Amino acid sequence: MGTMRKAPRAWHRAAERSTHPCTQRPRVLGTVGAREMTQDCRMEVWLIDLDRSAAALEALERETPRLASQDRSRARALGDAGDRRRRIAAYTALRILLERFAGPAIRGRPLVRGLTGKPRLAGSSVRFSLSHTANLALIGIATAHDIGVDIEAAREVRLSEHRRSEMIAAASGLAAKPLGGAASDDAFLQAWSRLEAYAKALGHGLARTLVDLGLRHRRPPTPLPEIEAAARRHTRQTGLSVRDVKLPHGLFGALAATQHMPPPRLRHFPAERHGLRKLAALPSAGRLRR
After folding, report:
1. Would you call the peptide bond into 220 cis, given omega within 30 degrees of 0 as the criterion?
2. d(CA 214, CA 260)
3. What are the beta bridge partners of residue 241?
4. Which among 233, 212, 215 has a CA at the least distance from the CA of 224?
5. What's the pLDDT at 180?
6. Is 58 exposed, middle or buried (0-12, 13-18, 19+ CB in 10 A)?
7. pLDDT tens profile 57-113
8. Residue 255: enclosing H or E segment and its boundaries?
9. How, if at all, do strands 35-38 and 28-30 pair?
10. pLDDT-based confidence at 181, cuts 50/70/90?
11. Nearest to residue 98, comparing CAs of 121, 72, 118, 69?
């Protein structure tokens, strides 16, 4: 018998892509109560100025309530009035974006949390991730696959240079893109954003993700190239990739999603009532109208 030739590596990659749900022909997914979404693996990332948009979001929520009672309860638990207002604004923006994907039937629908604590919209295939810092929020929305986003503001970082270098090495492996600036504050904050986004997409929490990446309680310390290589292997196992999100100066952001998805462009959330009404009335491309 003749020997079998190995299929080209590119063929194997193509075969893997063909079996991934995000490469399949769109089909209708069943949901609680109604058809809701086509499985076309869309993804959007939005930047929101919470202070500028708060008044318009409050007015829109009075006109058409979308928040669940738990959203308001979580916001009321915050001690500072400004923080409460920003949190309500972030939750309202999230609800508007979820509705664009899943339709008005989700208004007031609660968020549920699994064993890992990751929130999801009850009875829906839509996935989301919300991160905020000061007066800004970053929201990622996706269908049919997990997503994680994170945003960090520039600040002084009080951490040993060795510990910074370990985090930067792991984050470089996650994104397959090295971070410049040695162990500077900026390089660390971009690395931290990558790690946070990756942990959110996994749904395991950052502490467990750091353990999985070999960044907790290692004695003796692991060489930095080995940390980077281990992180790269971990992404191959999970099927996730991490990309930086280009944000205004002084901000650092990252997105984690399935490796088969092209990176989306950053969208800026409207701050005026007219723009919000227009956005709320416009479904995301591909959502089924009922």
Report:
1. yes
2. 26
3. 257
4. 215
5. 72
6. middle
7. 999 999 999 999 999 999 999 999 999 999 999 999 999 999 999 999 999 999 998
8. strand 251-258
9. antiparallel
10. low
11. 121
CA dihedral 235, 223, 217, 183 (to 10 degrees): -80
Residues with Cβ within 8 Å of 277's Cβ and at least 6 positions away in sequence, in order, are 60
- As a whole number of Å, the end-to-end CA separation of the chain is 60
DSSP assigned state of 128: E
Please tell me whether residue 257 adopts helix, strand or coil conformation.
Answer: strand
Provide the 3-class DSSP secondary structure of residue 63.
Answer: helix
Count CB-CB contacts under 10 A for residue 35: 12
Please say whether the beta carbons of 192 and 207 come within 8 A: no
| CA–CA distances in Å: residue 90 to residues 29, 85, 212, 267 | 28, 9, 31, 15
The packing angle between helices 81-102 and 69-76, to 10°, is 160
Angle in degrees, 0-180, between the axes of helices 273-281 and 81-102, rounded to the nearest 10: 30
Helix (H) or strand (E) holding 41: none
Give the separation between CA 85 and CA 78, rounded to whole angstroms. 10
**Cβ contact 212:192 at 8 Å:** no
Q: What is the distance between the alpha carbons of residues 52 and 12, in angstroms, rounded to a whole number? A: 49
Tally DSSP H helices, then E strands, for the chain. Answer: 9, 11
Give the least confident one: 102-106, 143-147, 232-236: 143-147
Distance of CA 145 to the CA centre of its chain: 11
Q: Is 225 exposed, middle or buried (0-12, 13-18, 19+ CB in 10 A)?
A: exposed
In the chain the domains, ranked by start, together with CATH numbers, are 24-126+135-141+264-290 (3.90.470), 146-260 (3.90.470)
Share of the chain above pLDDT 90, in %: 68
Distance CA 205, CA 116 (A): 7
